[in-house]
Protein backbone atom coordinates (compact mmCIF):
# COMPACT_ATOMS: atom_id res chain seq x y z
CA UNK A 1 0.00 0.00 0.00
CA UNK A 2 1.19 3.47 -0.78
CA UNK A 3 1.82 6.02 1.94
CA UNK A 4 -1.18 8.05 0.77
CA UNK A 5 -3.52 5.06 1.03
CA UNK A 6 -2.27 4.30 4.54
CA UNK A 7 -2.93 7.90 5.58
CA UNK A 8 -6.48 7.74 4.23
CA UNK A 9 -7.19 4.46 6.01
CA UNK A 10 -5.87 5.88 9.28
CA UNK A 11 -8.03 8.99 8.83
CA UNK A 12 -11.24 6.99 8.35
CA UNK A 13 -10.38 4.75 11.30
CA UNK A 14 -10.04 7.88 13.45
CA UNK A 15 -13.35 9.22 12.09
CA UNK A 16 -15.04 5.91 12.92
CA UNK A 17 -13.63 5.94 16.44
CA UNK A 18 -14.64 9.55 17.15
CA UNK A 19 -18.16 9.12 15.77
CA UNK A 20 -18.60 5.86 17.67
CA UNK A 21 -17.73 7.58 20.94
CA UNK A 22 -19.90 10.61 20.12
CA UNK A 23 -23.00 8.65 19.09
CA UNK A 24 -22.43 6.00 21.74
CA UNK A 25 -23.19 8.49 24.51
CA UNK A 26 -26.88 8.32 23.63
CA UNK A 27 -27.11 4.59 22.90
CA UNK A 28 -27.31 1.47 25.07
CA UNK A 29 -23.65 0.63 24.40
CA UNK A 30 -20.76 1.49 22.10
CA UNK A 31 -21.15 -1.75 20.15
CA UNK A 32 -24.52 -0.54 18.86
CA UNK A 33 -22.95 2.82 18.03
CA UNK A 34 -20.11 1.16 16.10
CA UNK A 35 -22.53 -0.86 13.96
CA UNK A 36 -24.54 2.28 13.17
CA UNK A 37 -21.41 4.24 12.22
CA UNK A 38 -20.07 1.43 10.03
CA UNK A 39 -23.40 1.32 8.20
CA UNK A 40 -23.35 5.04 7.32
CA UNK A 41 -19.58 5.33 6.80
CA UNK A 42 -19.74 4.29 3.10
CA UNK A 43 -21.97 7.33 2.44
CA UNK A 44 -19.39 9.64 4.05
CA UNK A 45 -16.53 8.01 2.13
CA UNK A 46 -18.28 8.08 -1.25
CA UNK A 47 -19.37 11.68 -0.70
CA UNK A 48 -15.88 12.82 0.29
CA UNK A 49 -14.04 11.21 -2.63
CA UNK A 50 -16.65 12.40 -5.11
CA UNK A 51 -16.02 15.98 -3.97
CA UNK A 52 -12.23 15.83 -3.68
CA UNK A 53 -11.36 13.73 -6.72
CA UNK A 54 -14.21 14.48 -9.13
CA UNK A 55 -16.02 17.76 -8.43
CA UNK A 56 -13.11 19.96 -7.29
CA UNK A 57 -10.68 19.01 -10.10
CA UNK A 58 -13.34 19.52 -12.76
CA UNK A 59 -14.91 22.72 -11.53
CA UNK A 60 -13.00 24.50 -8.74
CA UNK A 61 -9.52 24.15 -10.24
CA UNK A 62 -10.90 25.24 -13.63
CA UNK A 63 -12.84 28.10 -12.03
CA UNK A 64 -16.21 26.87 -13.24
CA UNK A 65 -18.03 28.23 -10.21
CA UNK A 66 -21.69 27.84 -11.31
CA UNK A 67 -21.10 24.17 -12.14
CA UNK A 68 -19.23 23.79 -8.85
CA UNK A 69 -22.12 25.22 -6.86
CA UNK A 70 -24.73 23.06 -8.60
CA UNK A 71 -22.59 19.91 -8.27
CA UNK A 72 -22.02 20.47 -4.57
CA UNK A 73 -25.70 21.17 -4.01
CA UNK A 74 -26.74 18.05 -5.92
CA UNK A 75 -24.25 15.83 -4.09
CA UNK A 76 -25.27 17.25 -0.72
CA UNK A 77 -28.88 16.38 -1.54
CA UNK A 78 -27.97 12.85 -2.70
CA UNK A 79 -25.81 12.24 0.39
CA UNK A 80 -28.58 13.46 2.70
CA UNK A 81 -31.12 11.28 0.88
CA UNK A 82 -28.93 8.19 1.16
CA UNK A 83 -28.26 8.99 4.80
CA UNK A 84 -31.99 9.34 5.47
CA UNK A 85 -32.82 6.11 3.62
CA UNK A 86 -30.24 4.27 5.72
CA UNK A 87 -31.79 5.72 8.87
CA UNK A 88 -35.31 4.67 7.93
CA UNK A 89 -34.37 1.27 6.54
CA UNK A 90 -31.75 0.14 9.04
CA UNK A 91 -30.14 2.34 11.68
CA UNK A 92 -33.26 3.78 13.35
CA UNK A 93 -35.09 0.41 13.65
CA UNK A 94 -31.82 -1.18 14.80
CA UNK A 95 -31.33 1.45 17.51
CA UNK A 96 -34.98 1.20 18.60
CA UNK A 97 -34.70 -2.58 18.89
CA UNK A 98 -31.54 -2.26 21.02
CA UNK A 99 -33.15 0.32 23.30
CA UNK A 100 -36.36 -1.72 23.71
CA UNK A 101 -34.29 -4.70 24.79
CA UNK A 102 -33.67 -2.74 27.99
CA UNK A 103 -36.79 -0.52 27.98
CA UNK A 104 -39.67 -2.41 26.30
CA UNK A 105 -42.11 0.51 26.57
CA UNK A 106 -39.79 3.03 24.89
CA UNK A 107 -41.43 5.08 22.13
CA UNK A 108 -39.42 6.88 19.44
CA UNK A 109 -41.54 9.36 17.52
CA UNK A 110 -38.92 9.64 14.80
CA UNK A 111 -40.29 6.36 13.43
CA UNK A 112 -43.93 7.44 13.49
CA UNK A 113 -45.82 7.64 10.20
CA UNK A 114 -45.44 6.06 6.81
CA UNK A 115 -42.15 5.69 4.94
CA UNK A 116 -42.85 8.80 2.88
CA UNK A 117 -43.83 10.82 5.97
CA UNK A 118 -40.59 9.84 7.71
CA UNK A 119 -38.54 10.61 4.60
CA UNK A 120 -39.99 14.08 4.03
CA UNK A 121 -40.27 15.38 7.59
CA UNK A 122 -38.31 18.71 7.51
CA UNK A 123 -36.58 18.37 10.89
CA UNK A 124 -35.09 15.00 9.94
CA UNK A 125 -34.11 16.20 6.47
CA UNK A 126 -32.14 19.04 8.08
CA UNK A 127 -30.63 16.58 10.55
CA UNK A 128 -29.59 14.28 7.68
CA UNK A 129 -28.00 17.22 5.84
CA UNK A 130 -26.05 18.19 8.95
CA UNK A 131 -24.81 14.69 9.74
CA UNK A 132 -23.97 13.73 6.16
CA UNK A 133 -22.07 16.98 5.52
CA UNK A 134 -20.29 17.64 8.81
CA UNK A 135 -17.71 14.86 8.62
CA UNK A 136 -17.18 15.23 4.89
CA UNK A 137 -16.56 18.97 5.00
CA UNK A 138 -14.19 18.60 7.93
CA UNK A 139 -12.29 16.10 5.76
CA UNK A 140 -12.44 18.42 2.74
CA UNK A 141 -11.12 21.28 4.88
CA UNK A 142 -8.21 19.11 5.98
CA UNK A 143 -7.55 18.29 2.33
CA UNK A 144 -7.44 22.00 1.49
CA UNK A 145 -5.03 22.59 4.37
CA UNK A 146 -2.81 19.79 3.05
CA UNK A 147 -2.91 21.22 -0.48
CA UNK A 148 -2.07 24.70 0.83
CA UNK A 149 0.84 23.30 2.86
CA UNK A 150 2.21 21.33 -0.11
CA UNK A 151 1.89 24.39 -2.35
CA UNK A 152 3.68 26.50 0.24
CA UNK A 153 6.44 23.89 0.53
CA UNK A 154 6.93 23.97 -3.24
CA UNK A 155 7.13 27.76 -3.14
CA UNK A 156 9.61 27.60 -0.26
CA UNK A 157 11.74 25.05 -2.11
CA UNK A 158 11.73 27.19 -5.24
CA UNK A 159 12.76 30.30 -3.32
CA UNK A 160 15.44 28.39 -1.40
CA UNK A 161 16.84 27.04 -4.66
CA UNK A 162 16.93 30.55 -6.08
CA UNK A 163 18.65 31.91 -2.97
CA UNK A 164 21.14 29.05 -2.93
CA UNK A 165 21.91 29.57 -6.61
CA UNK A 166 22.81 33.20 -5.86
CA UNK A 167 25.63 32.04 -3.58
CA UNK A 168 27.40 29.86 -6.14
CA UNK A 169 28.30 32.44 -8.84
CA UNK A 170 28.99 35.12 -6.22
CA UNK A 171 31.43 32.88 -4.38
CA UNK A 172 33.04 31.62 -7.58
CA UNK A 173 33.52 35.18 -8.83
CA UNK A 174 35.29 36.20 -5.61
CA UNK A 175 37.54 33.14 -5.58
CA UNK A 176 38.51 33.49 -9.24
CA UNK A 177 39.40 37.11 -8.51
CA UNK A 178 41.71 35.89 -5.76
CA UNK A 179 43.27 33.35 -8.11
CA UNK A 180 43.71 36.00 -10.80
CA UNK A 181 45.42 38.38 -8.36
CA UNK A 182 47.87 35.70 -7.23
CA UNK A 183 48.56 34.66 -10.82
CA UNK A 184 49.51 38.24 -11.69
CA UNK A 185 51.99 38.12 -8.82
CA UNK A 186 53.25 34.77 -10.14
CA UNK A 187 52.59 33.38 -6.71
CA UNK A 188 53.62 29.82 -5.89
CA UNK A 189 50.38 29.57 -3.91
CA UNK A 190 48.21 29.48 -7.05
CA UNK A 191 48.20 25.63 -7.29
CA UNK A 192 47.03 25.38 -3.67
CA UNK A 193 44.19 27.77 -4.40
CA UNK A 194 43.17 25.75 -7.45
CA UNK A 195 43.05 22.53 -5.37
CA UNK A 196 41.07 24.21 -2.62
CA UNK A 197 38.70 25.75 -5.11
CA UNK A 198 38.23 22.35 -6.76
CA UNK A 199 37.05 20.80 -3.48
CA UNK A 200 34.69 23.68 -2.80
CA UNK A 201 33.19 23.52 -6.29
CA UNK A 202 32.76 19.76 -5.96
CA UNK A 203 30.82 20.40 -2.77
CA UNK A 204 28.65 23.04 -4.41
CA UNK A 205 27.90 21.00 -7.52
CA UNK A 206 27.37 17.54 -6.06
CA UNK A 207 26.68 17.83 -2.34
CA UNK A 208 24.54 20.96 -2.04
CA UNK A 209 21.64 19.60 -4.08
CA UNK A 210 20.02 18.23 -0.90
CA UNK A 211 18.10 20.33 1.59
CA UNK A 212 20.51 19.54 4.42
CA UNK A 213 24.12 18.46 4.65
CA UNK A 214 26.35 17.28 7.46
CA UNK A 215 27.36 20.27 9.58
CA UNK A 216 30.89 18.88 9.81
CA UNK A 217 31.22 18.93 6.01
CA UNK A 218 29.81 22.45 5.74
CA UNK A 219 32.32 23.61 8.36
CA UNK A 220 35.13 21.98 6.37
CA UNK A 221 34.13 24.00 3.30
CA UNK A 222 34.11 27.21 5.33
CA UNK A 223 37.57 26.35 6.63
CA UNK A 224 38.78 25.69 3.07
CA UNK A 225 37.45 29.06 1.99
CA UNK A 226 39.16 30.77 4.93
CA UNK A 227 42.45 29.06 4.07
CA UNK A 228 42.18 30.26 0.47
CA UNK A 229 41.62 33.81 1.63
CA UNK A 230 44.55 33.60 4.06
CA UNK A 231 46.84 32.69 1.16
CA UNK A 232 45.80 35.90 -0.54
CA UNK A 233 46.28 38.25 2.41
CA UNK A 234 49.27 36.50 4.01
CA UNK A 235 50.59 38.44 7.02
CA UNK A 236 48.36 41.45 6.49
CA UNK A 237 45.41 39.69 8.11
CA UNK A 238 45.06 38.37 11.65
CA UNK A 239 42.48 35.59 11.41
CA UNK A 240 41.09 33.14 13.96
CA UNK A 241 38.55 30.40 13.26
CA UNK A 242 37.50 28.27 16.22
CA UNK A 243 35.02 25.40 16.33
CA UNK A 244 33.74 23.85 19.55
CA UNK A 245 31.12 21.30 20.50
CA UNK A 246 29.90 18.16 18.78
CA UNK A 247 29.30 18.89 15.09
CA UNK A 248 29.47 15.34 13.72
CA UNK A 249 25.81 14.41 14.38
CA UNK A 250 24.17 17.62 13.17
CA UNK A 251 22.72 18.62 9.80
CA UNK A 252 22.23 22.09 8.38
CA UNK A 253 21.12 23.74 5.13
CA UNK A 254 24.25 24.05 2.96
CA UNK A 255 26.19 27.30 2.66
CA UNK A 256 24.04 29.09 5.22
CA UNK A 257 26.96 30.77 7.00
CA UNK A 258 29.41 31.14 4.11
CA UNK A 259 27.98 34.49 2.89
CA UNK A 260 28.69 35.93 6.35
CA UNK A 261 32.33 34.88 6.05
CA UNK A 262 32.55 36.31 2.52
CA UNK A 263 31.10 39.56 3.82
CA UNK A 264 33.73 39.74 6.57
CA UNK A 265 36.59 39.27 4.11
CA UNK A 266 35.11 41.77 1.69
CA UNK A 267 34.77 44.58 4.24
CA UNK A 268 37.24 43.63 6.94
CA UNK A 269 40.37 43.41 4.83
CA UNK A 270 40.33 46.76 3.06
CA UNK A 271 43.70 48.24 2.12
CA UNK A 272 42.84 51.19 4.36
CA UNK A 273 42.72 48.96 7.45
CA UNK A 274 46.15 48.94 9.06
CA UNK A 275 45.66 45.92 11.30
CA UNK A 276 42.98 43.90 9.56
CA UNK A 277 41.47 41.09 11.58
CA UNK A 278 38.62 38.59 11.45
CA UNK A 279 37.43 36.38 14.29
CA UNK A 280 35.11 33.44 13.60
CA UNK A 281 33.65 31.32 16.37
CA UNK A 282 31.26 28.42 15.84
CA UNK A 283 29.93 26.45 18.79
CA UNK A 284 27.33 23.70 19.15
CA UNK A 285 25.61 22.69 22.39
CA UNK A 286 23.06 19.95 21.90
CA UNK A 287 20.99 21.14 18.94
CA UNK A 288 21.79 24.81 19.50
CA UNK A 289 24.28 26.39 17.13
CA UNK A 290 25.92 29.76 17.67
CA UNK A 291 27.99 31.39 14.94
CA UNK A 292 29.74 34.66 15.69
CA UNK A 293 31.89 36.52 13.19
CA UNK A 294 33.48 39.92 13.72
CA UNK A 295 35.82 41.91 11.53
CA UNK A 296 37.67 45.22 11.41
CA UNK A 297 36.42 48.18 9.40
CA UNK A 298 38.14 51.11 7.72
CA UNK A 299 38.32 53.92 10.31
CA UNK A 300 36.92 56.51 7.89
CA UNK A 301 33.86 54.37 7.12
CA UNK A 302 31.15 55.99 9.24
CA UNK A 303 28.37 54.85 6.94
CA UNK A 304 26.98 51.36 7.10
CA UNK A 305 29.11 48.78 5.34
CA UNK A 306 27.98 47.02 2.21
CA UNK A 307 27.46 43.33 1.84
CA UNK A 308 23.72 43.65 2.05
CA UNK A 309 23.21 41.08 -0.72
CA UNK A 310 24.91 38.38 1.33
CA UNK A 311 23.15 39.37 4.55
CA UNK A 312 19.78 39.64 2.86
CA UNK A 313 20.27 36.21 1.35
CA UNK A 314 20.97 34.76 4.80
CA UNK A 315 17.99 36.58 6.32
CA UNK A 316 15.61 35.24 3.67
CA UNK A 317 16.85 31.67 4.00
CA UNK A 318 16.58 31.84 7.78
CA UNK A 319 13.02 33.17 7.53
CA UNK A 320 12.09 30.20 5.33
CA UNK A 321 14.02 27.46 7.11
CA UNK A 322 13.99 28.54 10.76
CA UNK A 323 11.08 31.02 11.02
CA UNK A 324 10.72 30.74 14.80
CA UNK A 325 14.03 29.14 15.69
CA UNK A 326 16.74 31.61 14.79
CA UNK A 327 18.19 34.89 15.94
CA UNK A 328 20.37 37.04 13.69
CA UNK A 329 22.01 40.07 15.27
CA UNK A 330 24.07 42.59 13.32
CA UNK A 331 26.20 45.22 15.05
CA UNK A 332 27.70 47.82 12.72
CA UNK A 333 29.97 50.03 14.84
CA UNK A 334 32.58 52.62 13.86
CA UNK A 335 35.56 50.24 13.61
CA UNK A 336 34.01 46.80 14.02
CA UNK A 337 31.29 44.78 12.33
CA UNK A 338 29.76 41.83 14.20
CA UNK A 339 27.19 39.23 13.17
CA UNK A 340 25.81 36.70 15.65
CA UNK A 341 23.65 33.85 14.38
CA UNK A 342 21.88 31.43 16.71
CA UNK A 343 19.93 28.42 15.46
CA UNK A 344 17.92 25.54 16.85
CA UNK A 345 18.91 22.86 14.35
CA UNK A 346 16.02 20.59 15.37
CA UNK A 347 13.50 23.22 14.25
CA UNK A 348 14.57 23.22 10.61
CA UNK A 349 11.33 23.25 8.58
CA UNK A 350 12.91 21.43 5.65
CA UNK A 351 14.19 18.07 6.79
CA UNK A 352 16.14 15.83 4.48
CA UNK A 353 18.40 13.12 5.77
CA UNK A 354 19.84 12.20 2.38
From TrEMBL:
The record's GO molecular-function terms, alphabetically, read: phosphorelay sensor kinase activity
Please name the InterPro entries in this protein's record: Bact_2-comp_sensor_kinase, HATPase_C_sf, Sig_transdc_His_kin_internal
Q: Name one GO cellular component term.
A: membrane
> Keyword set for this entry?
Kinase, Membrane, Transferase, Transmembrane, Transmembrane helix
Q: Is Membrane found in the keyword set?
A: yes
Please state the span of the N-terminal signal peptide per the UniProt entry. Answer: none
TM region positions: 9-26, 32-56, 68-86
Lineage top rank: taxon: Bacteria
Indicate the segments forming the Signal transduction histidine kinase internal region domain, all copies. 158-237
Q: What is this protein called?
A: Histidine kinase
